Amino acid sequence: MYPNCPKCNSSYTYEDGVNYVCPECAHEWATTPEEEEVVVIKDANGNVLQDGDTVTVIKDLKVKGSSSAVKQGTKVKNIRLVLDATDGHDIDCKIDGFGAMGLKSEFVKKI
């Protein structure tokens, strides 16, 4: 069974040498699986972040459900990156006085 056409979703695709071909829209694509797209998460200054890094918060951040805020300059140790973050919070961490929370990488800088 050949995969459906990624362009028009036709099920009538066939293999032609090193490519798949769709007879309905004439789209061709490689039969070899492409390399997975590597997700790179960067801080506010463009530095690449990795699991275990230490970052600093660059602006006061309101905490949902609390009357307090994470203050600018707060040091956050041992971050964990979330590669499939749907809400934009691509860093999981624990902050003293607040506990576990998610941060957006655009509001931190790597130390």
From TrEMBL:
<feature type="domain" description="Protein YjdM N-terminal">
    <location>
        <begin position="2"/>
        <end position="30"/>
    </location>
</feature>
<dbReference type="InterPro" id="IPR013987">
    <property type="entry name" value="YjdM_N"/>
</dbReference>
<dbReference type="InterPro" id="IPR004624">
    <property type="entry name" value="YjdM"/>
</dbReference>
<comment type="similarity">
    <text>Belongs to the YjdM family.</text>
</comment>
<protein>
    <submittedName>
        <fullName>Alkylphosphonate utilization protein</fullName>
    </submittedName>
</protein>
<dbReference type="Pfam" id="PF03831">
    <property type="entry name" value="YjdM"/>
</dbReference>
<feature type="domain" description="Protein YjdM C-terminal">
    <location>
        <begin position="41"/>
        <end position="110"/>
    </location>
</feature>
<dbReference type="InterPro" id="IPR013988">
    <property type="entry name" value="YjdM_C"/>
</dbReference>
<dbReference type="Pfam" id="PF08274">
    <property type="entry name" value="Zn_Ribbon_YjdM"/>
</dbReference>
